[in-house]
Input
Amino acid sequence: MDDIDAWVWWLIGAVGLGIPLVVTAMPELGMLAVGAVAGAVTAGLGGGVVLQVVVFAVVSVALIAVVRPIAARQLSQRPRLATGIDALKGKQAVVLERVDGAGGRIKLAGEVWSARSLDTGRAYDVGQEVDVVEIEGATAIVM
Output
């Protein structure tokens, strides 16, 4: 074992951290693996054991401190492109059959939808444009 250079051990450590990264999808393990590669580079350039460990620690901690908050912020943001029923909220529709608190029909995004008035006392006549405020199941709530 004395025949193996230190940089090889660092690369083995990087691979050892990379395998659980793939299995568990924990990005922190990938950042530690990059730190191990930095330790291997330091060893390959002739740095001592203490310097190798310091480079590993500094690179790993820096990646975790910088990349992790950016990734968390990206994951917490809502997608900019609304899809499904979220894309229909706020759209305008045309009344096909009188819509009131009990029901009716509208044409929304090229499709015929059942609809109900948000205000149960309000009715919309055929041809009127309405705004979709919510989708409940297969029924559009309009105003």
